[in-house]
Amino acid sequence: MSAVTEATVESATPVLEGVDLVKEFAGRTSLFGRASSKVRAVDGVTLRLHAGRTLGLVGESGSGKSTVGRLLLRLLDVTGGEVHLGADDVTRARGRDLNQARRAMQMVFQDPYSSLNPTMRIGDIIGEPVTFHRGLKGAELDAEVDRLLISVGLSPEHARRFPDEMSGGQRQRVAIARALAPDPKILVCDEAVSALDISIQSQILNLLLKLQREFGVAILFVSHDLSVVRHVSHEIAVMYLGQIVEFGPADRVADSPAHPYTAALLSAVPEAKPSHRRARQKVVLRGDPPSPSRRPAGCPFASRCPAAFEPCHETRPEHTPVNGGGTAACHLQTQGPKLGGRSLPIELLRARPDEAPSAAD
Amino acid sequence: MTRNSREESAAPTRGDALLRVEGFSLDLAPGREYLSVLNDIDLEVRSGEVVGLVGESGSGKSTLAMSLMGLVPKRISRQRSGRILFNGVDVTALRERDLRAIRGRDVGMIFQEPMTALDPAYRVGDQVAEVIRRHRGVSRAEARAQVIEDFRLVEISDPERRADAYPHELSGGLRQRVCIAMAIACRPSLLIADEPTTALDVTTQAQILELLRRLRAEMDMSIVLISHDLAVIAEFCDRVLVMYAGQIMEQAMIDPFFVRPRHPYASALLQALPENQPPLNELSVLPGSPPPLGYVAPGCRFANRCEFAQAGRCDTHAVSLSPTDAGEVRCIRADELVLEGAGQ
After folding, report:
1. Which of A197, A221, A259 should be substituted to probe chain B, the one whose Cβ sees the most B Cβ atoms within 10 Å?
2. Residue A5 — left, alpha, or beta (φ > 0 → left; ψ -120 to 50 → alpha)?
3. What strands lie across the sheet with A105-108, from one edge to the other?
């Protein structure tokens, strides 16, 4: 698969780029110690992050979205493909070069209860990366920690506290302050608001929007929650079984999806507004995604796609441009109904009457 | 769908109160001291009705769900007042042995994490069969036959093979289906579902909600759905109860609630939803954090976070529930305020 994001309107150089990323994990070893088939968690993913913009990466569990985030930050080594930080190829950077690269790329994790060391004071949690990456000490360091605390909506007094003296929302603010400490260009947020209560979630999302406006940081926002991704993202990439199946401007992807999986995913999101609930056409997918160790020859979504026809089971679809921006990898675009860039008519996804409802593999 | 083994309990007709909680207050002692966790809860679930219970962490919604079936351990809890009537019987006055007879038979429960609700060391079919045998006293073969039938009912394909699987061999969605099969094995009149789809992917969540909707219609079952997700409540329930700091702040029919909530807390929650603001714009924010377990206040418990609170009025006087067009609300300013909801 190639050049997923080629169609993006952005012409500026990306601050971080993953090209044709592949990640394989060793499969389960058998009784006699022989490794079985490898699991391909990420299968040819290309994406680019731009300064001051957010790319939302959505997918369900096992889609490989978190692995993509970790490959980009070099927390995992790639099996194939390249990671470019600005003009530098950091795919195989080690030692000092890697530390240098890490300064520019930071991560915020889902659970602020396990991502902060409970034996360290907040001031040290935030101060450590400031010293490590920027060499500040003493009064300079203290001033910088205060500044970071204030920038995430906490106060300098919080520096003396321990994580367990703070609420979940406050802890996530600390985690964000720590990520900002090295003055990064890129922030990867992996399900960063998923564990938070609704009232806290909106506070943290506002904080991320504000920090992006102020510091121009590029954000990769990895989440399963489409309504949240829609809200914070400029572009959205949809992953299924290790591949990006659709990419494009956030409003285009969310309002007129071109890939059946995106359409099904959007229709499965519950709606609070009564009028939306009544207006929406529902597509309920059957079954679960196939295991990444037994990947199909054709389209990864073919086994669950209500609109699948012969070519879908045989050849893997290429990404083609979609009207309104972005691309989708779906045979319906070029064969059969030949949508040719149009968004997907929801009628194509209506379950056929002969299909028995059952939860398959 | 015929109802089995309901001879013992007088089946109420549709619309009657199946479950009625009256002035129920409970203290819990997670540490050394007792904390007031549930305060003056009134709640009614009519036959065939789906009631949603929504609240943030620490609001007491799960404790309430556990209390409904006497599942809160007695040695760490203290009931201060009230009663919980199921089919006219006060559950809080029952001995453990009698409670066990009701649980599973008349009331089924499903939880957030199906992996912890199932025993990893036993085949899933055997675990469901055990529930059937315990409550029905049927033979092994009969129980097995019903397991297969129930697995079909919850849309598990290839039920004979799936019944012989261990929990870890099944996907999260299939495990939750097994738990649902177990919960409905005795055709209960009430199903309590505590965050049943929170750990699942969104497409799996849609499948499970559709299944529960179908089962509810076929079996004429009442459901109490506990969730932190307002949109799930909106899609699935007839009525909603909003909990905050151990109290019910508002209860209302679904559509009026989402268009025009009557409690400032409910309104703030609805407005904080991302879909209420244009993308990339600042979200409406409810300041502060949900109060810790056991939080009490002389006046309204939400007053310190409420943008409409009036000093000397809201923070000094305890508020009781008063009737509205669509339900009840616990706010002394409810009649003066016109609040925003999730939009039409």
Report:
1. A197
2. alpha
3. A105-108, A186-190, A218-223, A54-58, A235-240, A243-249, A327-329, A319-321
**pLDDT tens track for A301-350:** 999 999 999 999 999 999 999 999 999 999 999 998 889 999 888 888 87
Q: Does a structural domain hold residue A215?
A: yes
Give the closest residue to B136 by CA, choosing from B277, B5, B227: B5
Name which of A60, A202, A223, A301 to mutate to probe chain B: the one with the most chain B Cβ atoms within 10 A of its Cβ. Answer: A202
* Alpha-carbon gap: B302 to the closest alpha carbon of chain A (Å): 13
Contacts of A198 (CB under 8 A, 6+ apart): B56, B228, B230, B269, B272, B273
pLDDT reported for residue A5: 46
- Band of the pLDDT at B111, cuts 50, 70, 90? confident
For residues A111-116, average pLDDT: 86
Give the number of other CB atoms < 10 A from CB of residue A70.
18
* Chain A residues lying within 8 Å of B242, measured CB to CB: none
**Residue A265 CA to its chain's centroid (Å):** 15
Which residue among B210, B279, B290 places its CB closest to the CB of A231?
B279
Residue A270 and residue B274: Cβ atoms within 8 Å? no
The answer to the question of residue A270 being in a domain is no
Q: Is the pLDDT of residue A355 over 70?
A: no
ipTM: 0.86
Question: Which of A225-229, A277-281, B164-168, B306-310 shows the lowest mean pLDDT across its residues?
Answer: A277-281
The pLDDT of residue A28 is above 70: no
- Check if the beta carbon of residue B182 is closer than 8 Å to that of residue B156: no
| Residue to test with chain A: of B57, B200, B273, most A Cβ within 10 A | B273
Q: How many domains does chain A have?
A: 1
**CATH code of the domain containing A213:** 3.40.50.300
Q: Is residue A357 part of a domain?
A: no
Q: How far apart are CA A218 and CA A196, in angstroms?
A: 23
In this complex, the residue of B173, B287, B290 whose CB is nearest that of residue A359 is: B173
Q: What are phi and psi of B239, to 5 degrees?
A: -145, 155
* Residue range(s) defining the domain that contains residue A152: 16-26+38-255
Cβ atoms of residues B56 and A197 within 8 Å: yes
Q: Rounded to two decimals, what is the model's pTM?
A: 0.88
Q: What is the pLDDT of residues B182-210, one digit of tens each?
A: 999 999 999 999 999 988 888 889 999 99
Q: pLDDT by residue (tens digit) across A76-105?
A: 999 999 999 999 999 999 999 999 999 999
Nearest to B126 by CA among B134, A280, B15: B134
> CA nearest B266 in A: which residue?
A199
Question: CB count, 10 Å around CB of A82?
Answer: 15
Where does residue B289 rank: exposed (0-12), middle (13-18), buried (19+ CB within 10 A)?
buried
Say if A314 falls within a structural domain: no
Question: What is the least distance, in Å, from the CA of A228 to any CA of chain B?
Answer: 6
